[in-house]
Write a structure and sequence with these properties.
Chain lengths: 269, 257
């Protein structure tokens, strides 16, 4: 009888433990699906939900706050998505909030992202409808890209035509690249310009001689002397200023070197 | 030739019909009154409690090995963060229930087959029938029900230990915190993963108990038939588990998806 009782106890412990394990597992799974928390529901209507499924996550400022509860077709062009959101984030979601459908990572799991919209301060109520943004549709994007590609084709075609004409030496660019006459005439122009420069140089030399002669003329000598004196005076003042500035600088330098040595010593200590 | 085929076919139908009748006897005897609670608990102890060590070690190692096997492959895709989810889904949905059921078939179906077979050979079952005790109620019902209830519990325990083994396996190469691993595992799981897997383990348990009891109860007279009963109980139970698994996955996919 003693043996039987201990057997019963062991079976009882085993059964209870495993059932508790199962319940824990169920609770953990349910918690991820926000099943045992108080929640509110919000609605958003989309023209195209882009493959959203019931049970996909809802994110608000990047945090998972709930799951998609239902997706119903309202008419031929609208679907209503029920968003089951935790009650504790309700005060943060304002009435102007915008729901958009995006995808998560490379694997492409869809999710609903709620972003705070206009600056209204009223939080949403249970059962409210919130604004939505249509998801970016890949086929539309591809359509635009193909338009861009067509434009690019036309442009490259025209570019090819221009390049062939340039290769054939047509037009000013072609002549620049492929005909010698332009270069030769350019060379001629440059040598002529050199001659011109030489004569201009001679003219300038003559002019400076004239000016030197004028400086010694008694009519203008006084003006130039005054100018020279003013220049010498300014130079001397500058020198004095420099000396006055250098002294404090030297002191500073000494102080700095002292500081650095003391710092070093402190570090070593 | 034709007669041989017909006779083997009729032999097969005879066995099939016999099994159906045996199921009927089993079902009738559950509700007959005077349920053998003491014997049922003793069988639960033998089937469940005595298998904890075997099943626990198996479960832990399965999770551990599965993690180490998937990790390099997922690493090449840069999808290492999917290791916990993948291990959890594959263990809970398929590997845990089937492997544990096969282990239990080896341990439990053989022992039941051998036990009832030797009782048949030593004419203990006949003696019970003569003395107007109900051998089906006392021997068969308790064993089958004990298996049906204990195998799912063992599977739950093995699943939990396999996840723990997975955690250890991940932590051999990288460091992942306990809570992150389990959060990832459970975020990948749905009730549609857990419930069908749990329900099918009841059928696995029933198959183990039923095949063991049937083979033992219907063994021939003679010493070698005890070994034959034990052997064929394990083989048929394993086969039944695989077949039931194939049926279960079809039904699950039909209902859930």
């Amino acid at each position: 009888m003693q043996n039987k009782t201990s057997q019963k106890i062991k079976v009882g412990i085993f059964t209870t433990a495993t059932i508790l394990l199962l319940l824990t597992g169920i609770f953990l799974i349910g918690r991820n699906k926000s099943m045992f928390r108080s929640t509110i529901i919000l609605y958003g209507t989309f023209k195209n939900v882009g493959g959203l499924l019931e049970g996909n996550n809802i994110r608000f400022v990047g945090i998972n706050v709930g799951t998609v509860e239902s997706i119903d077709i309202l008419s031929d062009s609208t679907a209503r998505v029920g968003l089951r959101v935790q009650k504790k984030v309700q005060p943060f979601i304002k009435q102007g909030a915008i729901a958009s459908i995006s995808s998560d990572g490379l694997m492409g799991d869809k999710l609903v992202a709620i972003s705070s919209g206009t600056n209204t301060t009223k939080p949403v109520n249970d059962g409210d409808a919130i604004n939505t943004v249509e998801p970016m549709q890949l086929d539309k994007v591809m359509g635009r890209i193909s338009g861009v590609a067509e434009n690019a084709e036309v442009i490259t075609g025209q570019l090819a035509g221009i390049v062939t004409q340039v290769n054939q030496g047509k037009g000013s660019v072609g002549r620049l690249l492929y005909s010698d006459s332009l270069a030769k005439s350019l060379e001629g122009t440059i040598s002529e310009a050199k001659g011109t420069m030489r004569s201009a140089h001679k003219g300038a030399e003559g002019f400076s001689e004239n000016m030197e002669a004028l400086k010694h003329n008694f009519l203008l000598r006084g003006y130039f002397r005054k100018k020279e004196k003013a220049r010498v005076k300014a130079e001397q003042e500058e020198k004095n200023d420099d000396k006055a500035d250098e002294k404090p600088k030297l002191k500073l330098k000494k102080a700095k070197s002292k500081d650095s040595t003391t710092v070093k010593i402190e570090k070593e200590q | 030739m034709a007669s041989a085929i017909i006779s083997s076919f009729s032999r097969y139908m005879e066995i099939a019909g016999d099994q159906v009748l045996f199921t009927g006897r089993f079902a009738r005897n559950i509700f007959r009154g005077g349920f053998e609670w003491g014997e049922f608990l003793r069988q639960c102890y033998i089937v469940g409690y005595k298998s904890i060590g075997l099943v626990g070690i198996t479960g832990f190692i399965i999770g551990f090995v599965l993690t180490l096997q998937t990790q390099p492959t997922l690493k090449t895709f840069g999808a290492q963060s999917f290791v916990p989810s993948m291990v959890a889904i594959s263990i809970i949905r398929e590997i845990g229930p089937v492997i544990i059921a096969l282990i239990c078939a080896g341990k439990i179906a053989s022992s039941i087959g051998a036990e009832l077979g030797s009782m048949k050979v030593t004419e203990q079952i006949d003696a019970m029938e003569v003395s107007s005790a109900n051998p089906v109620q006392y021997l068969v019902v308790t064993r089958i029900l004990a298996c049906t209830i204990m195998v799912p519990l063992l599977t739950i325990m093995a699943d939990a230990l396999a996840l723990l083994g997975g955690y250890v396996g991940v932590n051999i190469q990288d460091h992942v915190s306990f809570s992150l691993f389990f959060r990832k595992s459970f975020s990948a799981l749905e009730f549609s993963d857990v419930m069908p897997a749990l329900i099918k383990t009841f059928f696995f348990g029933y198959a183990i108990g039923f095949v063991g009891c049937y083979k033992g109860y219907h063994s021939k007279r003679g010493t070698e038939s005890v070994g034959l009963a034990a052997n064929s109980a394990v083989v048929s139970a394993s086969l039944w588990i695989i077949l039931l698994d194939a049926i279960a996955v079809q039904i699950t996919n039909m209902i859930v998806y």
